[in-house]
Write a structure and sequence with these properties.
The chain is of the alpha+beta class and 636 residues long. The protein is built from 10 helices and 39 strands. Helix content is 16%, strand content 39%. The longest helix has 15 residues, at 284-298. The protein is globular.
């Protein structure tokens, strides 16, 4: 299921080259740190009725260097509920002189059909100007569309990336008298100017001027939290004869129910099969486990994007017959299987993706792109990802974990929070035995157990890669300077917090350095962290450490040294503590053996901008400790 991006149409006469597009007129402050400057960005969104709207969009962008060449391309999406009525483009030189216009043959029209988009009526038109021999140059695009799917209104973000400046930008929304606009503003210098038209409608206008380019700082919040953006949404809408209201999350849930009501019936033969399959299960969890395994073994995922198919499921009977479905269909099918054995469950709409920001919880709207299933079980709740044939029951990973979801109930749909995976859920437990030779070479036998979010990438390579591809991946992601991977084995353990184990046998060249009678031995073989990049200017953005920083790592490395070496000095235990995590490392000497133990627990979160200096200091200390080596002297 996709997030529906709404664009529409407003007819405005085009007049090429009547505006001054000379690059020399761009203020110097806008060229600073910019690869391109938006000279004009004009969007007019006109709602004609509860079920139809039009959009006019004109953008003029001056490209300053090679990194800005991507701005010379325009892509516009459409489907059977939307239509591109005009697509124009023009290219100008540095002096603003028209070089050429887009011809019809320059505009390509493609289907988005792919192997996983088995049913898809989405298409897109795209055009671009060829790379120019010199900079700067200017491109202009005009696109006009009509839309008959008003579940979602457009989001306006003229400055949607770093190194892009804005000279002028306007966003106009025209609403008829009988319909109200809902909107949310972020990072804007001025609020909307609202006027009433002669027929009782309202016009909303937002303007931006002279907004300099920005460069995102390391570990800063998502673009939507830093740059100007306006979200809009309807209060009443209609699509394909379905009418809806949208002022609360409960309204959205009621509309979703109206689209998908009475689509959970399954054939009688399947009903009897399900009852037989679960007859010995006495608990909710046991029934869910049996039927979730059945779902995974009997169905496969395909994307279905036909008309309102982004939100309306195909019937459970058809899934039973065809053995495939999209996230809505497979979730609905699993819900129907559970209903057969008396286990209630409810779909939950979520914005999925490990890099996707959370939903705007104070702005009810169609922000979601995925559906999962929620199964209440006394004081516990199971969440089921129904599109993955290998996913452990009850585990969501960072694809849909740690965010808000809209729980769809018969009445009173509301936001809930999906499971949060703590550092103790996301563990790396590593044990390595290393035999060091007189020449400094070594052999290592490494066993690592990954749990929770740290397990995910290993699960993916287990199920999606060939043996040779797995080998190549392991070599690429093993942080040892010079080694050979002799043998490896990968295994997986399902569970609410799943685990994967990697066993590696390595031959390492020159791990220890021999200098005369001394042997220099680095202690951290596979888990060393590097420092964080320091800021060269006062930081502005908050420090945001995502779920990849919620982890707990333990390493025990046992080194077997050549005979006759003794340590030249003792290394004291290291302890580093901060708001970002805790680190310890220590050594134990046992004859010719050295046992190195390292433990680090990290905590993600959002911290004030001033905390970045502490973050750099913490990472610097950890990196220094991870580079620690012990010097041995060979006795006579």
């Amino acid at each position: 299921m996709k997030h529906i991006v709404l664009l529409a149409f407003c007819t405005i006469q085009t007049a090429w080259a009547q505006t001054d597009y000379k690059a020399t007129t761009i203020p110097a402050t806008l060229k600073e740190n910019a690869h391109a400057v938006v000279r004009e960005h004009e969007t007019v969104f006109t709602v004609k009725s509860i079920g139809e709207a039009q959009t006019y969009n004109r953008t003029v962008i001056t490209v300053l260097d090679e990194q800005g060449d991507g701005q010379a391309k325009r892509t516009e999406w459409y489907d059977k509920l939307s239509k591109i009525t005009n697509f124009e483009g023009a290219l100008y030189d540095a002096g603003g002189k028209l070089i050429r216009k887009l011809k019809k043959a320059d505009i390509s029209d493609y289907s988005t059909y792919s192997d996983y988009n088995f049913f898809d009526d989405d298409r897109y038109k795209t055009a671009s100007f060829p790379k120019q021999p010199s900079y700067p140059y200017t491109v202009e695009f005009i696109v006009e569309t009509t839309e008959r799917n008003l579940m979602a209104y457009p989001t306006w973000a003229p400055q949607n990336e770093e190194f892009l400046a804005i000279e002028h930008a306007t966003f106009t929304v025209n609403m008829p008298a009988n319909l109200a606009l809902r909107y949310k503003e972020r990072n804007l210098p001025n609020a909307a100017v609202v006027t009433t038209t002669t027929d009782g409608g309202k016009t909303f206008v937002w303007k931006l001027s002279n907004i300099p380019a920005v460069e995102f700082e390391p570990h800063s919040p998502p673009v939507q939290e830093q740059l100007p953006v306006v979200y809009t949404a309807p209060t009443d809408f209609e699509v394909q004869d379905y009418k809806g209201k949208l002022t609360t999350w409960s309204d959205l849930g009621a509309f979703y129910n109206s689209l998908n009501d009475n689509r959970d019936r399954i054939p009688d033969a399947l009903r009897q099969q399900v009852i037989e399959l679960t007859k010995n299960e006495t608990t909710t969890a046991g029934k869910v486990r049996k039927l979730y395994s059945f779902l995974q073994s009997q169905t496969r995922y395909v994307s279905i994007q036909l008309g309102i198919g982004g939100w309306q499921t195909i019937e459970a009977e058809k899934v039973a017959m065809n053995k495939y479905g999209d996230c809505k269909a497979l979730t609905n099918y699993m819900k129907a299987l559970l209903k057969t054995v008396g286990v209630p469950s409810y779909p939950a709409l979520v914005r999925a993706g490990d890099s996707e920001p959370d939903a705007l919880i104070d702005f009810p709207s169609f922000q979601f792109n995925h559906v999962i299933l929620c199964v209440p079980d006394k004081r516990d709740t199971l969440f089921l990802e129904c599109t993955d044939g290998h996913n452990p029951m009850g585990y969501l990973s960072d694809f849909t974990g740690n965010r808000h979801a809209l729980l769809i109930l018969p009445a009173g749909s509301h936001l809930i929070k999906t499971p949060v995976y703590q550092p103790t859920d996301n563990r790396q437990l590593r044990q390595i035995v290393v035999n060091v030779t007189e020449q400094g070479d070594a052999t290592a036998d490494a066993r690592t157990r990954f749990t929770g979010l740290q397990h995910d990438k290993y699960s993916a390579i287990i199920h999606n890669m060939s043996r040779d591809e797995q080998r190549s991946w392991l070599i690429k992601h093993t942080s040892i300077p010079a080694f050979e991977l002799n043998t490896f084995a990968l295994t997986e353990e399902p569970g609410a917090i799943p685990a994967a184990t990697a066993n590696l046998k390595l031959a390492i060249r020159r791990w220890a350095t021999i200098s005369g009678t001394r042997l220099f031995l680095p202690l951290n073989l596979m888990s060393a962290l590097g420092p964080a990049a320091p800021m060269t200017h006062p930081r502005k953005a908050p420090l945001k450490l995502g779920t990849e920083y919620d982890y707990d790592d333990s390493d025990t490395v046992t080194y077997q040294l050549p005979k006759g070496y003794t340590p030249e000095y003792q290394i004291e235990p290291v302890t580093i503590s901060s708001k970002f995590g805790q680190y310890t490392a220590q050594l134990k000497l046992d004859g010719d053996r050295v046992i190195y133990t390292r433990h680090i627990t990290m905590h993600g979160g959002t911290f004030p901008a001033a905390a970045y200096t502490e973050w750099v200091d913490f990472r610097k200390k950890v990196a220094k400790a991870d580079r620690m080596q012990l010097v041995f002297v060979k006795s006579n």
